[in-house]
Amino acid sequence: MKVRPKRNLGQNFLRDERYLIRIVSSAEVSEDDLILEIGAGTGELTRFLIDRADQVIAIEIDDDLIPILEESFSSSSKLYLLHADALKLDWVNLIRGISPHRKAKLVSNIPYYITAPLIEKAIESRSVLSLCVLTVQREVARRICASPGGREYGSLSIMVQYHADVERLFDIPPGAFRPSPEVSSSVIRIRFREEPRVKVKDERLFFRIVRAAFQQRRKMIVNALRSLGLDRKELEEALKRADISPESRPEMLSLEEFGRLADGMAERV
Predict the structure, then answer these.
(1) pLDDT at 176
(2) What is the CATH number that goes with domain 203-264?
């Protein structure tokens, strides 16, 4: 059955088996694994996951694709297929309900328009996820994996790297997809840490400071943080205590420096 991809759902189906195999290998999928796949599409990646894993939870939002997936995998007892919006599901209860004592691996070619919210949800669900292997837009992959000092480094970099070790593994050209997207893609691996990369007194304040800083990333850090409600003198003192130059740009600050700054401001914001 021929499937017409839906632009409103960001559907670009990865057809090239070479890359599908590399994705599954990058996730280190074994016969003991429980896999969560978001956006199963027409089942190309699903098929390789089922071949290697113990169980696969495949979530698909498209009404037209569910019958195709049901027919394609009718003989498989390994697949748990859900017709749902993955962003509205409780992943923690879903995974624990299927396998109470095992963490899952998230392995997906995700629609690019939901990349940021999906990664945020994965971080929120990290108690039941060991790692994620995701196909994302190449520019987004660079942002997620960026180091301090470059224009690609920002709040998304910090949000992911605070909770996980991240790698950009390989690129996938547009021609490997049907239809071909207008951008190149990259596969990234996010391996969640047992503890955050930096220890802070107030995690919510830490991320509030990070967001405030990068909303004004072209300004000096002392000016970028004025939205927090402190006057310039208070901010300069806080930066000095954290051993950060007030003239630094936000993209120059490491996670550790943002952590020191958040701890120093914990009783003042």
Answers:
(1) 93
(2) 1.10.8.100
Q: H helices within the chain, ranges in order?
A: 17-26, 44-52, 66-72, 91-98, 115-124, 138-145, 155-163, 203-215, 221-224, 232-241, 255-264
Supply the mean pLDDT for the chain: 93
Which sequence spans correspond to the domains of the chain?
A: 7-192, 203-264
Does pLDDT of 6 surpass 60?
no
Instruction: Read off the pTM.
Output: 0.92
pLDDT band at 220 (very low <50, low <70, confident <90, very high): very high
Token pair listed for 163:
């909770």
Structure tokens at 81: 């297929």
7-192 folds as Rossmann fold (3.40.50)
The string of pLDDT tens digits covering residues 190-211 is 999 999 999 999 999 999 999 9
**Dist. CA 124–CA 200, nearest whole Å:** 18
H-helix or E-strand containing 169? strand 164-172
- Closest by CA position to 88, among listed 55, 57, 114: 114
d(CA 247, CA 221): 6
Nearest CA to 76 out of 55, 99, 98 is that of 55
Scanning the structure block, which residue is given the tokens 């996951």? 49
- CA–CA separation, 119 vs 191, rounded Å? 12
Convert the pLDDT of each residue in 249-266 to its tens digit: 999 999 999 999 999 998
